[in-house]
Amino acid sequence: MPLWLLYSLASSASYGFCNIFDKYLPNKIDIAVTTHFMLNAFMTLISMIVAITIWPLQPLAVEIMILATATGIIVGFSFFCYFQAAATLEAPVVSAFWQIGRVFAILIGYYVFDERFTLIQGFGIIIVILGSVLLSTDYKISRLLPKNSHHIAHGFYWMLGASLLLSIGNGFEKHLLFTISTPTIFFYGSLGYVLAGLCGFLFSSSSQTFKKDIKKIRPKTFGLLIIRKLCGSCGLIAVLFAFSVGPLSLVTASRALQSLIVFIYILILPKLGLTFVKQGHEKTYQKLPAMIMVILGVFLAAEVF
User: Fold this and answer.
1) Is the pLDDT of residue 246 over 70?
2) Is the per-residue pLDDT at 282 higher than 60?
3) Alpha-carbon distance 66 to 122, whole Å?
4) Nearest CA to 297 among 159, 138, 133?
5) Vertex 196: Cα angle to 191 and 201 (nearest 5)
6) pLDDT for 130-189, tens place per residue?
7) Taking a C-beta distance cutoff of 8 angstroms, is the pair 239, 11 a contact?
């Protein structure tokens, strides 16, 4: 199995856990989306401090430093859009819309980085994206989507913005990884994320409720937010390692496994005591064809067979 695929799997497992928390935890404790995003940015700042104590930073020219930070800002705003969408749509539907970004990233890899893949790999990419969409949208749509069609369109536009911005940010990360170490990219990318979080907080109308929201957070909830941030940091580090050793298009396509992982988490987390996670309304066997498509597509794209 290629090394980039192992990193990609680790990233999907970490980010899948974040998807669940980002959807259901703010609803559980009744806090605004912007508050959740700002708390995540604050914890990102802490992870930056921890990172520089573990890994020495690579000296950079000023223009490279600015580009690396700007990349983090782009990725940060993509997650701001993602948080807004997660507040409107259910986690499986958000995961389905997220596949749009994979198409963007594949196009960037093809046209910008001149990445080419075999016919089998191309078929695998198509299969894994289709399977991921089917796995995410095979739920009872009337129960998962908001009753108001305006909310559906609103959530879709937020996810479209999130997908496009994340693809562009990943493209810049791939470009920077040719000359910069992964820990250095993580540090400056996190710095950009914090700046994006601060901007999103200052210009959002819901920032006025920040003090009230903070008072609602109990130690147990704060602990869950820390776990969420640790998973997010691990996911980011894993995907950066994947980009450093593998092609952008294939790494991005393989991360469609995140939809399968989200589905598995929705099944098992309520049984582990996380009752704020909503279970799916359909039987597991009804998802089996989509699961097989996702797994088969990833293995074909990676040419494991």
Assistant:
1) yes
2) no
3) 35
4) 133
5) 125
6) 777 676 654 444 444 445 555 566 777 888 888 888 888 888 888 888 888 888 888 888
7) yes
- Spatial separation of the C-alpha atoms in residues 149 and 164, rounded to whole Å: 23
Residue 186, token pair as written in the block: 């993580």
Region for 140 from its dihedrals, namely left if φ exceeds 0, alpha if ψ lies in -120 to 50, beta otherwise: beta
Token reading at 169: 């940010």
Residue at token pair 């369109």: 153
Q: Is 287:144 a contact under the CB 8 Å cutoff? A: no
pTM: 0.76
Alpha helices in the chain (DSSP H): 3-29, 33-54, 62-88, 91-97, 99-111, 119-137, 141-144, 149-176, 182-202, 210-216, 219-245, 248-254, 257-268, 288-301
Is the pLDDT at 108 greater than 60? The verdict is yes
Mean pLDDT score across all residues of the chain:
76
Residue type, 9: L
Burial 123-135 (b: 16+ CB within 10 A, else e): ebbbbbbbbbbbb
Q: Any idea which residue has 């998973």 for tokens?
A: 231
The answer to whether the beta carbons of residues 192 and 74 sit under 8 Å apart is yes
Q: How many CA atoms lie within 13 A of 156 on its CB side?
A: 8
Distances (CA, A) of 135 to 160, 220, 270, 281, 282: 19, 32, 19, 13, 11
With vertex at residue 163, the alpha carbon angle to CA 69 and CA 292, rounded to the nearest 5 degrees, is 125
CB 108 within 8 A of CB 248: yes
The mean pLDDT value for 22-50 works out to 73
205 DSSP 8-state letter = G
